[in-house]
Amino acid sequence: MMLWILIAVLTAGAALAVLIPLRRPVEHASDRRADQAVYKEQLAAIDAELKRGLIDAEAAEAARTETARRLLAAAEAEKETTAVSSSRYRVRAAQLLAICFTPVAALGLYMVLGSPDLPDQPLAGRLNAPMENQSVDVLVAQVERHLADNPEDGQGWAVIAPVYMSMGQPLRSAQAYANALRLLGPNAEWFTELGEALTVANEGMITSDARSAFEQAVELDSAPVKPRFFLALALSQEGKAEAAAEAWTSLLDGADERAAWVPVARAELAKLRGEAPPSETGPAVEQPAGPTAEDVAAAGEMMPDEREVMIRSMVSGLAARIDQNGGSEAEWSQLIRSYMVLGDQGKAEATLKSAEEALANNPDALSGVRNTASKLGLTGS
């Protein structure tokens, strides 16, 4: 019933939107003809008063001029009123058409495109529907409603935290994990996921809060690789080469060579030592401290979230070191390539602009960076 009331209100509003502009008072030509008769009588009265000497010639001329002007105006108004009157029937026809056609057309469209037989579906009904018939959004809303009523339900926060992460809401995921830890106590896995959510939210940079979460996870259980992997990346991002090399070495000690993260860790360790990556041969060469094609390829077997975090962490670390210590041609070029690999052209362009400013006094290096950018489809200043 409420639906039909709303339809009636909307239809009335649509009709009024058409009728109001058409509505204007219609003046009759007879009114204007009466005005003209009055002005003619006034002209005759002025002439009579002049003959009787009641007014002088100058005053009579002025009065006659003003009355004549009003007479002409009344005559013009009569013409306009006549034209309006002739279109009055067309206006009324348009009004009638609007009154009849608008609701009929609206109802017809609704019957064709709408679902008049579909019963109301309030939020409560959707939330209480069988689980197999509910979308992810409805399920999340159901858990959120439960948590709003029971904010101390730690298990509920633990359930919804990974869902938030999969929906691309890392900050809400981090808050949910924090609530679960606060209510249910320490848990190595939750600390790890909390740190990862904070890292994703900060575009790969491992903040102090994220690092603290990873450290607490390792204190509770030192066996899992993920928290130690992130802690090694954190040391690399902070420019602590010796500590980072030690962390990568410890991580690789006894590792399964088939694990997807192992080539990445070995490549990072090689960079810190100034050595060529294990996949290359020949003399050691200086390697830019950022993800190479080998790193990205090695990450291919990781879960999407883990792969994204790993790559962004290394890119952020490289960017931080360049910002702090300056960068070589290879490092600037590597950072630009990395952003393009991540699909972040805006940051790649901003990095190219920064490189042009930083290498302004080194034409050869600047030319190399610009050549790399040009191959990637970027144009400098």
TrEMBL record:
Keywords: Cytochrome c-type biogenesis, Repeat, TPR repeat. It is found in: Cell envelope. Pfam families: TPR_CcmH_CycH (PF23914). Residues 273-293, 362-381 are annotated as: Disordered. It comes from Roseibium denhamense. It comes from the Bacteria. Residues 128-253 form the Cytochrome c-type biogenesis protein H TPR domain. This is Cytochrome c-type biogenesis protein CcmH. InterPro entries: C-type_cytochrome_biogenesis, Cyt_c_biogenesis_CcmI, TPR-like_helical_dom_sf, TPR_CcmH_CycH.
